[in-house]
Specification:
The protein has 166 residues and is mainly β. Helices cover 11% and strands 53% of the residues. A 10-stranded antiparallel barrel has the order 1-2-3-4-5-6-7-9-10-11.
């Protein structure tokens, strides 16, 4: 009888352990932005723009960004897939007190995230759009644009190239 109880206990403990170790964020939807993870040198127009370290936290449910700009700016973002509305989301906060909320999806090979309209310092309504595109050589292009006319025209704020460090 003791042997049977011991076997049942081991089976129960084993199944409980395996259930608790399932990866909640390991399905394909959660992996669509993986191409951006890494430790990067960032340039814009051939000039050093900064470095960016992008890695997974919270059992791969969040892609964490830590930016250090060549001019002293810093910022961090949480990037995550929201299964309730099937979108990718980014919350960005920098050392100047700026915040940006973006939402979007993979479009072809590019991740495209767009902000809600907000009012800038000149009392103008602004929408931001950031597009990350993996390149054939392993680099990633980040194109950050804004519009003040509801998307009829876009102004480039940053066009950066990410290349992996060593």
């Amino acid at each position: 009888m003791r042997t049977i109880l011991t076997c049942l206990l081991l089976i129960f403990a084993s199944s409980t352990y395996s259930q608790s170790n399932t990866c909640a964020c390991c399905t394909d939807e959660y992996r669509k932005f993986d191409f951006w993870s890494g430790n990067w040198h960032v340039t814009s127009n051939g000039q050093v723009a900064g470095t960016n370290n992008i890695y997974f936290i919270q059992d791969s449910c969040i892609l964490m960004e830590n930016w250090v700009g060549a001019g002293g700016s810093t910022g961090s973002s949480f990037n995550f897939y929201d299964k309730t509305d099937k979108t990718w989301n980014q919350l960005w906060i920098d050392n100047q007190g700026n915040k940006l909320n973006l939402k979007g999806q993979l479009d072809g090979m590019s991740m495209v995230l767009i902000s809600d309209p907000s009012v800038n310092g000149n009392n103008q309504i602004v929408i931001h759009k950031i597009t990350w595109t993996p390149l054939d050589n392993g680099d990633v292009r980040q194109l950050w644009e804004s519009t003040q006319d509801g998307g009829k025209s876009w102004n480039v704020l940053f066009d950066g190239n990410y290349s992996k460090k060593g």
